[in-house]
Amino acid sequence: MAILVNLMASTILLLGILISFFVSTDAQSVGVCYGEFGNSLPSQQYVVNLYTTNGITRMRIYAPNPATLGALGETDIELILDVPNGSLESLTDPNAATTWVRDNVLSYPDVNFRYIAVGNEVDPNNDNTRGFASFVLPAMNNVHNALRAVGLDEDIKVSTATYTGLLKKSYPPSEGVFDDNVLSFIKPIITFLAQNGSPMLANIYPYFAHVGPPMLPDLSFALFTKSTPAYSDQGRPYFNLFDAMYDAHYAAQSRLGGGNVEIVVSESGWPSAEGDVATTENAGTYYRNLISHVKSSSGTPARPGRSIETYLFAMFDENLKPGKETEKHFGVFLPDQRPKYQLSF
């Protein structure tokens, strides 16, 4: 009997250790995107050190940068590496994709590559990115095949970063559907992801959904501070806009065969200046509540019981970032490396 009791106690202890390990591992679901459109940003080595000292274990970069990749080799930080939109056409050549993987992945054996994002927010309905649409899937296939040729296709998953702007309908979330004009673009991509066990990378911004057009009047719904549901959808109560946008994207891809394709939130953030609701207070509230929400096991109403791998946008304010002035104020750190908000990663 004593032996049985000791065995049971040892088993319970082992299970406790395993559960603790998986919970703690899964809880590390928050990364930060590292953009470099600034003229006063610290060196890449200092940036990587800043990630490490703040316990940020995942990073996304928007193009291969030898200085960043070299600095990452000294860490365990997991990386999303983008193929920039301007490089997509060249990677429709299988030989060029093999060379790209050799130069930017194989040359850095100590870097912990997690995903390759082949293109960012390519949209057949957008004049700025329409010309890249036909290159995305061939480039994805070629990069995947190059990784498979060296036995890395299971360790490094190939995807593309899309966004909720491709949806024709997002309310209620269960009726989320892609725009008719993007179906021929997105459906084969979803098929690729499902066949290869890759996630969908999706940039989800309640800020932009809130400011519109049309503007959504309930700021608390966007900032995770609403205490009562904004509405229910098929009996599921929605307390925040992030969940609604996530579930709408999931519903849309499920209609195209992507029901088993996980969604990784490859960008989400809130600006601190240059807008009516773009304030430091609102941004800090959003980032703190977003981190707490995605690291918990609450999931979303349509996908409960799981944490959500999410990447905050962005590490720094970027004073040279093109576009509206608001785009320059998404940083969670100032260029001098001081934190803009008190965040726990």
Q: Residue ranges: pLDDT <50 for 5 or more in a row?
A: 1-26
**Kindly, what is the distance between the CA atoms of the first and last residues, rounded to a whole number of angstroms?**
46 Å
Task: Provide mean pLDDT, rounded.
Answer: 92
The chain-level structural class is alpha/beta
Q: What's the helical proportion of residues?
A: 25-40%
Strand order of the largest sheet: 1-2-3-4-5-8-11-12
Provide a count of the helices.
10
- Compute the gyration radius: what is it? 21 Å
Q: How many strand units?
A: 12
Largest sheet: 8 strands, parallel, barrel
Helix-strand sequence: HEHEHEHEHEEEHEHHEEHEHE
Based on Cα principal axes, name the global outline. Answer: globular
Q: Strand share of the residues?
A: 15-25%
Structure notes:
An 8-stranded parallel barrel has the order 1-2-3-4-5-8-11-12, surrounded by 4 helices. 37% of the residues lie in helices and 16% in strands. The chain is globular, with a radius of gyration of 21 Å. The protein has helices at residues 2-27, 44-53, 66-72, 94-106, 133-149, 183-196, 206-211, 219-222, 241-254, 280-295, and strands at residues 30-34, 58-61, 78-83, 112-120, 157-163, 167-169, 177-178, 200-203, 231-233, 236-238, 263-268, 310-312. The longest helix is centred in the first third of the chain and has 26 residues, at 2-27. It has 345 residues and is of the alpha/beta class. α5 runs parallel beside α6 (183-196). It is built from 10 helices and 12 strands.
